[in-house]
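Our preliminary data section would be incomplete without showing what the modeling component actually yields. Below, a chain of 348 amino acids is followed by its predicted structure, encoded as tokens that our downstream tools consume directly.
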Amino acid sequence: MKREVVGIVKLVIQPLLKSEVNNMEQKQNGIIFTAIPDKSNEYYRPFYEDLIYFNEYLNENKSFTDQLVSLSVEEQDFHTSFFEYDDIWLRDVAPVVTNHLVKFKYQPNYLPKDQWRYLDQQFNKWLKKNDFEYVKSPLILDGGNLIWNKKDTVIVTERIFDDNYDWTEEEIIEQLEWDLDVSRVIIIPAEEGDVLAHADGMVKFIDEHTMFISDFLGDHEFRYNVQEIIQEQMPEAKFIVVPSSYTEKGQYDQEIASAKGLYINMLETCDTIYVPKFGLAKDWEVLRYIQQHTEKQAIQIHVGELSTMGGAINCLTWYCPSHLLPSKMKKLKNQNEEFLVRKIFDWL
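Predicted structure:
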């Protein structure tokens, strides 16, 4: 009797599994990259366990269409690219993703020269080692300061003018249009007092014309100003205000403001939006709110104490879609897919 039941279940389950695998292949799985500095790093040492937990949590809760790969010199319980990269903020040093990859110069004015030079050189070595193909831009730009609508428009803050002071504003915009293959570059003001001045803490496109926008801690005048500037160049733009629950309590770096409670700093992949989970009372309310405004699944990822260093999930990751991955990385198997199949047949 048991054999008959198992046989019937397999007849039902196997086609479903094949269908699900085919769906995953059609969506062209991408990879979410993170980085784990060595334990000896004095600046990040107090957060080492939090960083491991973040990666484990992301690995266990990520969508089946996404993979996780972490740059690390130590073996972890998730897929690791063995490489020494002594920082956690991959978004800013990694290539920007549009219809192709664009690597900007990483020279942030909030880091000492020897530090940003080392980090940029190291990440360039990793890109070369793994055969990534990308366009090199002569401009200085942090990856977190560029938001793309997946078609023809990008948004960056005025920081790009300060970082590239030897270029005219017109030259910078023309270069961005050329490098990124877009027809519209929208420049918005940075938040007052924001050392990083990144656009990914302000807006987030969810389709070609619609974007989430931060509530800027209730500063309605500033938000209206940002919206007006965007609509001057993009009249069709629509805005969905994302509430925040900001707290500066526990801020780690005196120079860099905490990002705890800033839900706008979310990560988007092919079918998922990963929303920061801070351990605050508003976490679930915001998750439900985000889910109401997107057809993609919204998943919370715990960033906890890491956010007190000045960034959340978008800052901590770099997502590369499948069609822009080098061949060697396209061969990586989706760990969640294997886990699903194994668990089902263990049960049978």
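Residues 39 and 45 are 6 Å apart (CA to CA). The radius of gyration is 21 Å. Preliminary results of this kind motivate Aim 1 of the renewal.
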